[in-house]
Amino acid sequence: MRTTVEITSVQHEALNALAKRRGLRGFSQLVQEALDVYLQGLGDSETKLLLSLEGSLNEQQEAEMRSRIEDARAAWRAS
User: Fold this and answer.
1) Rg (CA), the chain
2) To the nearest 5 percent, what fractions of the chain are helix, strand and coil?
3) Are 18 and 27 in contact, with CB atoms under 8 Å apart?
């Protein structure tokens, strides 16, 4: 599945260098490996809790959360 993730230029350069050292064309595989390690570190109970939250917001709560996320993203990009 494709998605967009915001990373710093330093992270981008480091991932490119590591991918090149491994003989990879891009760094998607590196990001997948990092996510696997992170998710494994959460443990089963935390993973189940996070998955149980899917669909737990009503429409008004979802709209408010999306608005707050967009505000945070706009502020983050400006700095």
Assistant:
1) 17
2) 75, 0, 25
3) yes
Predicted structure pTM score: 0.58
Q: Which residue has the tokens 């993203």?
A: 73
One-letter amino acid identity for 63?
A
Cα separation of the two ends of the chain: 30
What would the pLDDT profile of 19-55 be if each residue is shown by its tens digit? 999 999 999 999 999 999 988 888 888 888 888 887 8
d(CA 39, CA 56): 21
Tell me how far apart the alpha carbons of residues 19 and 29 are, in angstroms, rounded to a whole number. Answer: 8
Separation of alpha carbons 39 and 29, rounded Å: 15
